[in-house]
């Protein structure tokens, strides 16, 4: 398994198991099976509301001798309602308690959007905190303390564009080591990836297989990545599935990916895809499939009720 190397010697496996929208009772079995298959990277978040089951699966895997804690890479994320300085430490402690862990390997600021305490998804203007009320610089200062106090080995961000990271530079004593963003052949985010590469920031790609659906409410109808005819040809030539080809492409580009699944067969298939090696011609073909198509619209964070707009979350001029 390829890994992404950090300055302190930490290694994040290039393939992880995503757990977003994994239902109760399913996510426990999925995580346990993934560890049995060989996964050593589990991607979590407080807002997914399933960290307690993930924690039980990790605890059981360790007690059964399937894996040691130090062999696992566990990521979680600070939700938008915990950006105020006094809320950051309690948030990670809650996550650690649910995951039954003493420390995380990586803790991310989930979005550069701040909500009032207790708000899951905003429904009215009063649900938001403005940039002045909850400056990211103050949130990041607390994230730095978490790392310095050993509660997480690495700190990073998610859904941050280059402008937001540049703004952090002005006051940060520790820079983010990871930026988790939507990343797949229809959204390779070349400009943002180049910025992160130049600044020593690893990228983790969520939604690496694109969307599993064609249309979502209030969102643009994009083609499905896994139905792309050119990818189907490449997959056939490599005796692989389209999903395996897409994952191999991202890993070859130095990106870690966290495809979500609770299906045992797909969990195994994705793991096998991490070992696939594509030739230069295949890589170039995939690089030029078309797009950009963004499947994570982000509409919940912008609009009439919000003090934020799309320039606060997405990289412009893709």
From TrEMBL:
This is Aldehyde reductase. PANTHER family: ALDO/KETO REDUCTASE (PTHR11732). Pfam families: Aldo_ket_red (PF00248). It comes from Cyclobacterium amurskyense. One of its GO terms (molecular function) is oxidoreductase activity. Substrate binds at residue 110. InterPro entries: AKR, Aldo/ket_reductase_CS, NAD(P)_OxRdtase_dom_sf, NADP_OxRdtase_dom. Keywords: NADP, Oxidoreductase. The active site is at 48 (proton donor). The record marks 77 as: Lowers pKa of active site Tyr. Belongs to the aldo/keto reductase family. Residues 15-289 form the NADP-dependent oxidoreductase domain.
